[in-house]
Structures are given as C-alpha cells and as structure tokens.
Amino acid sequence: MNVSKEGKKFLIDMKVYLLTKGIKEDDINNFLEDAELHLIEGEKEGKTVTDIFGDSPKEYAEELAEEMEVDKRENIKSLVTSIVSIGGYWILNSILFSNPNHHLTISNVDLIGYPIILLLSIIITVVALKMSSFKSKLIEFSIIYVMVMIPILLLVLIKFVDKWMGIPIIQLSGSQSFILAGIIFLVLIIIDFYLLRWIGVLTHCYQVKKYILPQNKKNELNFYGQL
Description:
By secondary structure, the chain is mainly α. It folds into 2 domains: 5-67, no CATH class; 72-225, no CATH class. The chain is built from 9 helices and 2 strands, in the order αααααβααβαα. It has helices spanning 5-20, 25-44, 49-53, 57-67, 72-98, 108-132, 137-165, 174-196, 198-225; strands at residues 104-107, 168-172. The chain has a two-stranded antiparallel sheet. Helix 1 (5-20) packs across helix 6 (108-132). The chain starts with a helix and ends with a helix.
C-alpha cells in the first residue's frame, strides 16, 4: 500500500523543514523511513496524518529537530560551495555572453552589491522553504514567489545603481577573461565532481557543448563577416 497524498506531502514538508534546520541528512532519511511505515500502517486503519503525528506537524518537526544533531561541517561545506558555484556561474556568464568582446569589467557597485545579493539569496531561499513547509499549495507558492522576486528586484536595482555610480575596478582583456573563465570552469568541475561525482562533470560538459561552443562559433562568423 502506498502513502496517501496527504502523507506524501507531510514527508516532503518534513524533509525540507529539517534540511533547513541543518540536520544530518542520514538522520532525516532514517526518520522518514520510520515515518512512512507508521503512515502506511496508520492509513490502513483509517487514520489521518493528524491522527498519527498530531495537530501541528510544524511543532512536531521543531521538537524533532531539537533532538537531532546539526551537521555543522556539511552546512558550512554547502554554503561555501553554493557561494563559489553561483559566483563562478555569474562571472562565466559575464565573460561569455554579456559582452560581445568577452572583456570582463567589474565595478565598485558589482564588487559590493553582488556578494550581498548572493548571501541574501541563500538566506531568503532557506527562509522561504522553512516558511512554506506544512502550508497549503497556494500559500506555499505565494511565499516562494514573493521570496524569489526579492533577489531579482535587487539585481535590477544593482544594474541601475551601477549605471549611475559604477566605477570600473577590475578590467580584463579578452584573452585574460578566457583564462579566468577556464580556471573558474575547472574549479566548478572539481566542486561538482566532489558533490555529484561524474553526473556533475557530464552536466558541465553538456552545458559547454550546448551553449558556449555555439556562441563562440557565432562570434567567429561575425568576425569573418566583418573582414
């Protein structure tokens, strides 16, 4: 017998909530296996999620989180890899797609604004997932939608401020930019191999084949067309 839709939502919400609390994933998975068995047995007897786990799943999850161990090392690793990965993708995009000459220019506004937005985005994501857990689908969607819009609006604001007050601090030529892009790409491959093994590496190679190589070919055609 499979778990009901209500039971599946409870298990998903519980996993998301406990992950946002930084609990060890092995402990979470062990609990979810036991919880699923309880749900299957309880639903066979006609019980609901409320009958099995109480009226407030969020309070139950909070009590459970207090009894579980926080995986500080894994949390720090996830935070660092997220910052490096997102920052790396942003620089790669700036080099390969934002400028037709592939010159990388970073202003004082970029240097201050983007790291702040990056940290805020990570915090907002965690808060949004935590707040949307154990809510109805409509409320869950509304919370995540509003939270996602905040970093987007901040990025737009950074663009406007950069036009008014931006002073170039770092300026790299095309060849220097490509060298930096190569270094960043290797770092991202190492990170993905460490986290996802070969799946992450193959994903990167696919992205290069699909997006970067056609873009470079297009630039070559434009160059020869101007001769």
